[in-house]
Fold:
Amino acid sequence: MTIPNTRPSLMVKQLYDRESCTYSYLLVDAESQEGAIIDPVRELFDRDIEIINELGIELLYSIETHAHADHVTSAGKIRQTTGARIVFGEASGIQAIDISIKDGEELALGNYKIKAIATPGHTAACTSYFVDGMVFTGDTLLIRGCGRTDFQGGDPAVLYDSITDKLFPLGDEVRVYPAHDYNGRISSTIGEEKRWNSRLGGNRPKQEFIDLMNNLNLDLPKKINEAVPANMSVGINFDPNRYLLHDFDMNNLHDVWQSLPEQSLIVDNRTPEEYAKAHVPGSRNIPFGTENEHIDLFNQYQQVYVYCRSGRRAQTAFTNLNMQGLDHLVCISHSGMPNWIDAGYPVET
Structure:
């Protein structure tokens, strides 16, 4: 007897920025309510956050396909607001991110895995993302077209290989969701693009594609001088030297806790309800979102350790406070209270 697959479908909301013709995508696992947003736009930040809050989504990732030249990302603001970790392809070289993802690596999202596929060519650091029969291609593969190759390390030969060797083999039925469309089209499939893509469909030879791309003679994007530098700092004025996440987990915190000096403070930034059930003995509950009200308190200590359930809220609080000049914080970013309990360490309730 075959047992039917009852796994909930991955919900995809396609969001649109009319000015830059940019598509952003909100992915949500219906069972866990964990989510990710791909290529968010700064001017639509309020809209996106409203949707995330209305749907009760725990946003884990803000994913970028590349450093865009036609709009500024809202990834930095989203991280400050939700704690979502910023994801860029490894080749981007951007310092102010949380996950520098390699080709073939995966991001866990509820019941799903989002697989990174390095697809350089439009820019040197473009990355596509494959999940649940869908591929989010950024500017690498567009509907009946592809991204230009004349700036940010673009290379038509490399782009041709990325599309024909990495995207086309995914399968004809795989749905294609690009970062842009200028003609009102929403999505395509790999099979359609292999057949009808105007630039490299129908088995167009590689050299013909290279010659075509080298002779487009397009104007530069209007916002390139603003957008690219801003996106290299995740869309906000960011000093990467201040963003130093300590490789600290709950085992390290336990070592510190055993001989905690009076000049140190442990902060639990979960909700009061979570704190009441179990917390690190001697820790102080300062719920996520209220940390700015306690800056004077933090400045009374030589070292402040911040933890939560999984590290997501602690990381966000750490980032917000660090950007305000507090440089004596340690973020427990790789684990949280469940790990402390599983290790058998003492708790207060």
About this structure: DSSP finds eleven helices and 18 strands in the chain.
